[in-house]
Write a structure and sequence with these properties.
117 residues, homodimer, mainly beta, 10 strands, 55% strand, globular, 9-stranded antiparallel sheet, Jelly Rolls, 0% helix
């Protein structure tokens, strides 16, 4: 087993087209022991966003701080600290913190990618 | 997709033998869409603990609040807010908040159990 503070993990810019002011850290990935799913921590600064996109992998999300609009929901939807968010496979989704005044931080768990190192 | 506050999920006592002052909420389970892994939120009140135990399912954990001793580590180990903890398959582990002054709250993701409803 191991314990690691999130700040010990490398900070990476999210390079999805259209993503702004968004970083990710891979807390528990394949190289650090994950077998079937991985845990990442995302941070979207005020003014930032991750635009609508979709993929096979479902998301299990838990919001640590802040509040943001969840894009792709059928009605206007926000998620805030202490909310869980489930996004099924292939469903369009995104996160918009352009109205926010604090960072939107969340844990996002996805299945291991087939080609993941 | 859906957004749910953790307090909307049913609060259950953890009934593992020897567990004290510990509750769990299933945030994203099989009945609520999980396909291969599930997200739960545990809370161990000050004075509480989950004793050493082991099972096939690995754990990917993120600490939301508090600080507790992680049982089963080769040396004295604590985990606190903003730490991630990885516990491999079949490794003995437990959480001891008997020294703590605040609740130890954490997200714990495990694979779907084979017999899970």
């Amino acid at each position: 087993m191991y314990v690691v503070n999130y700040q010990e993990r490398e900070l990476e810019e999210v390079n999805l087209a259209g993503a702004e002011l968004t970083t990710v850290r891979w807390l528990i990935g394949k190289r650090t022991g994950a077998k079937t799913y991985v845990m990442r921590l995302f941070e979207i600064a005020p003014g930032g966003k991750v635009p609508l996109h979709q993929h096979d992998e479902e998301h299990e999300i838990f919001i640590l701080d802040g509040k943001a609009k969840i894009l792709g929901a059928p009605t206007e939807t926000y998620a805030k600290k202490d909310d869980a968010v489930f996004i099924p496979s292939n469903e369009e989704h995104g996160y918009d913190n352009t109205e926010g005044t604090e960072s939107f931080r969340f844990i996002c768990v996805i299945p291991l990618l087939k080609n993941e190192e």
